[in-house]
Request: fold
Amino acid sequence: MPEENHKLIINRPGEAPQSHWQRNEETGQLQLQPGRRPAGYYVSDTSAKSPDEDRGRYIELELVNQIRRRVDTWRENDCPGITATTRKLLAHWRDEERDPRFFFCQLEAIETLIWLVETREAEEGGIRIPGDGGAFKRLCSKLATGTGKTVVMAMLIAWQVCNKAANPQDTRFAKNFLIVAPNLTVRERLGVLDPGDEKAGNYYREFDILPQGWGDRLSSAQIRICNWHKLSWETEEALSKKVGVDKRGARSDAAYVRDVLGSEMSGASKIVVINDEAHHAWRVSSGGAQPEDVSRAEREEATKWVGGLDRIHKVRGILNCFDFSATPFAPSGRQTSEEALFPWIVSDFGLTDAIETGLVKTPRVVVRDDSKTDPSPFKSRLYHIYSDDEVKDDLNRKQVSPHTPLPDLVSQAYALLGRDWSETRKAWKSRGGDTPPVMITVCNRTETAARIRCAFEHGNLAVDAALCDAESMLHIDSKVLESAEAQDAEGAGDAEDARAESRPKTKKQQAAYLREQVNTVGRPGAPGARIQNVISVGMLSEGWDAKTVTHIMGLRAFTSQLLCEQVVGRGLRRESYDVNEETGLFEPEYVNVFGVPFSFLPHEEDGAKPPPPDPKYWVYPLAPRAGEFGIDWPNVLRIEYLQKNRLQVDWDSAEPFEINTLDAVTAADLAKTLGARLEDEQNLLEIDLKRLLADAMRLQTLTFKAASAAYQEFGSRWRGGQGHLIGQLVRLAEDFMHSEKVRFTPEPAEPERRRLFTALYMTRIVNFFIDAIRQSNIDRRELVLDTSRPICGTGDMKPWRTSKPCRITEKSHINRCVLDSTWEASEASTLEASPLVQAWVKNDHLKFEVFYTHRGVVRRYRPDFLIRFRSGAMLVLEVKGVMRPADAAKHRAMREWIKAVNENRQYGQWAFEVSRDPGDLHGILRRCGESQSLAA
Reply:
């Protein structure tokens, strides 16, 4: 990679920022501006396909900027109005001879809290900090992930306790602290704040928090650290719904507080609360979200957390509540990029500031690739992989087998990211690294994670074999991890018990050991030391601070820039904090990101988009019509096939399988996220697959992969001998590879290039091979239903609104039929008038859908109408005037669905027809409806 013409790291970690990068909207170039960037945050347009398309908006934090100016002046005037104890602490913390020095952002955060609490200037100067609607005061310090907020907490505790020891009558200070964490992992990490917990370490000693001779001043501190589950409480209403003999009712506030604070603080008053990861602690009434807008788990955590603090304040009194978070937003509940910012934020050192100061790794996101699918050179399908049309439906399927092939784009993304990971691993080994670099994947669902793990373990991805090592892979389901995290602190010792055993025995030990593995990724000698491939479902929990993460793959929806920052934040912690002696700056470290639409710099808006028209009609099921006009159907996830014992495929008569090589992604460029223009080639990192090992895709290898994948597909349901099956599959795979049925368009000119495309499209080629065997040798079809909802129906529709034309229905469970065309209006009239039709419904918001595969991509097909005849027979009707390339695959999948349902004999007789012009529906209804038994 060419030497960069400039570095994004421009500020020294121990000094106030002297300059910042700003993007010139006319030229698109980054320009160095003098002075510090104003406090604010960026709301990104997460629908953008590339950083260049992102026309988000920058929102200034006016209160923070006002406070920042006042604190700067106060600092320049030698901090008037503070106690002698505080002055001694500040002098100790600011000492330029310290090694290492505190970061400027850490000093600014604690100085801001000191100024607000100790000086009358803040109150008299018109500074008003909004509250959260509760009875106690909250102050929030916004510090980016990786900037050392736990150290600031230690400074805060020392400042409070030392002042209280020096003057016990001063009511501004306290010696009793309740520290609340979002999970057990963070709770254990915060043990460093308890000066009596030598096992956890001691930040006061490690970071030289106290001046010499002041160590004993912390002995009077009472510190209680718990995760939010300790604050859990139940209302009288909730208790009244319980079934059992325990009728003691809810605990009184006094009893509740004694339990939470423990015996050491049972008589304490005027308590200081510290909320770590405080964005979990918000009031539904003040956070901008209504109870129905956010998940039940989010509401429960926020309500129990803040409600518990309300009860403590009522009994003991909370002097101050100090919040710390990198992302202090409450969920808005809207599917947009807007969140409800905590209005009580008093200081801010955001992620862009942290990147420019080098306190964290610099994320690099994909800005372009060599795919010809989109002619724009500044767009990449790898920027937000999940939103790609070929990926989203496929990854949203339920109850699919782990052996189900991944979409081509996902496989190609792993080939590219895996290539760069392999180069990074070699570089780390050459310099004697003790632990490997780590790639993390954040998935949308459990099934996706299982498919990815299976693809790695069975060598179905064109990546370094080291990345496929099962012993170095960590598969995390967030629900399992949350269960482990929810244990009380007394269960923490189970991880040590589990480590002592070669194989953890009890479920509790297994959960503790999993947590221990997760928490020690990248730490030499620990259970997670050799982990290099982490596959997670949902978010990795807070407190996960592995410093060896170099690559991130996002395979889920990202509906807000906040979520992007939280995911990428799991890979931002630096490995080295050594300052370059010549420049005084940190050297850059990077994390390469695929699939997370992540950007920071503000863009001017092109103008507000007009709001959508107000909905005019409610569409919903009419309860009184359910019995006569309700329509049900089996909720089929997939169809499994039982094959004949003797497998045969006539390859000579089979249609050739064509692959458009222009769709392939074989190279990608990554740009640092502060937004350098793409034509500045020196600021791009290129990853390409041109040098992929040629012998990796030899004919023998392809034959083995095809036969192996087919065995995974058919083996579990094979009724004969396994050896007989393997022999037949190997023979069919050899015939297939010599049949030349796979054709690339345009044909690669070089053999190496053909092998590369074969590797990238191996999933699709193997899928074609398996499907050919399946279709040629079907003995019986079996339905696999969604176990959570095996039967769906019109009554499941949730009310929705539309401004489209509608017609009132009479023979439908749904009150209105939404009309997408005049043709559909004609069809609806015919269905209403036909004496053969007993009930019908437009398949809109019903989620009656069938999965089909087109060009190797799994998609969802939603036919237009469901019709029940008076005979009880069912008809699926598609209205289609012009046939498109994908329609044949849709109709083939629908007919397979019909055959499987009819063979099952439990769900009535079904048929499928396509109406190709407005005048043929009468004939279709007569032909199908007059028969008492429909043939598929």
About this structure: The longest helix spans residues 408-430. The first strand starts at residue 19 and ends at 23. The mean pLDDT is 83. Residues 87 and 706 are 73 Å apart (CA to CA).
